[in-house]
Amino acid sequence: MAKKSKGNRIQVILECTEHKDSGKPGTSRYITTKNRKNTPDRMEIKKFNPILKKYTIHKEIK
Question: How many other CB atoms are there within 10 angstroms of residue 28's CB atom?
Answer without folding.
Answer: 19
